[in-house]
Amino acid sequence: METTSTVAGASVQGGGGRLPLVSTPLLVYDHGTFPNNRQAAFRIADRRLFTHALPELTENSFHVTPHGWVLLHDSRSLRTRLWDPRSGRSLAMSAQSRRFQHALPDTEHALPASWRCYLSDAPSAASCVVLLLYMAEPKLLYCRVGDARWAAHEYAIGDVALPPEYAPLEKRVIQQAAAACGKFYFAEAGNLGILEFSPAPEFSHHDYAHAEFPDESNYSRAYVVASGGELFDVQVYLKGFTPEILTVRVHRFDLSGADSDSTRVPIGDSSVALREIADVRSQT
């Protein structure tokens, strides 16, 4: 197996069964395509690009999690497992994955773009829940590490706000989430949505005060991001109603009060990474 690392125009060859990513954080931005099936990863610490062909990713369908672990699914044995590309370590998941298989009815829906995968805790924690969100419909799959099987759940968090002439109503679908303190969080119609498993899925939400729009902005994209066990609200403000980014503001959610509304605390000058935006600098 051959590895190529590139930095400042230089190329280094190497081998091994895992990505040579001895330091984190890192961004994986290319999952590899036929015919070479080589994956690409960018290590933020030293701005180095790695390309590597890994059998774990060429022989299974897979979903990358924000924790860095990858959920692998073998369509032949129907087994699923969590795999760490940095160390090569694996954790077995459910041995009975037919429900998982049935939720992926065709190749198109099995692609990583159709699902997003999250972990509630470190995979070694007994309470860790592996969550798969379907991007096209309000449904999810979940399984605790070591559980006997995957479970499917259809949820209802309201309808998309559209004028009356738009019919039938379109149900809201969670497109992005973050995990902190054993729970999953998502942006829900201007509020903070919460999903926890005790043990069945339970949805709730927190209200919080929203910041005023900056001058020249009429629209924003909201993201909920977790880092270091904390939760952050990222607002990407667009100029007018155009795709042009005017400014980005990042606040930390204060979740210390179990029964009180969530509050947002400015975090100052920090960097965050989003799917649509490679690197944005927060502004308070």
Describe what you observe in this structure:
The protein is globular, with a radius of gyration of 20 Å. The protein folds into three domains: 1-59, no CATH class; 60-206; 210-284, no CATH class. The chain contains three helices and 23 strands. 5% of the residues lie in helices and 43% in strands. The strands form six sheets. Strands 2-1-5-4-3 form a five-stranded antiparallel β-sheet, with no helix packed on it. It has a four-stranded antiparallel β-sheet with strand order 6-7-8-9. It has helices at residues 55-58, 98-102, 107-110, and strands at 3-7, 10-14, 26-30, 39-43, 48-52, 61-64, 70-73, 80-83, 90-92, 115-119, 129-134, 139-144, 151-154, 178-180, 183-188, 191-197, 201-206, 217-227, 230-239, 245-254, 263-266, 271-272, 280-281. With 284 residues, it is mainly beta. Residues 42-257 form the KIB1-4 beta-propeller domain. InterPro entries: KIB1-4_b-propeller. This is KIB1-4 beta-propeller domain-containing protein.
The level of helicity is: under 10%
Strand content: 35-45%
Q: How far apart are the first and last residues' alpha carbons, in Å?
A: 47 Å
| Poorly predicted residue ranges | 1-16, 105-109, 258-263, 266-270, 276-284
Rg, Cα atoms, Å: 20 Å
What is the general shape?
A: globular
Q: Within the largest sheet, what's the order of strands?
A: 2-1-5-4-3
Estimated structural class: mainly beta
Major sheet: 5 strands, antiparallel
What string gives the helices and strands in order? EEEEEHEEEEHHEEEEEEEEEEEEEE
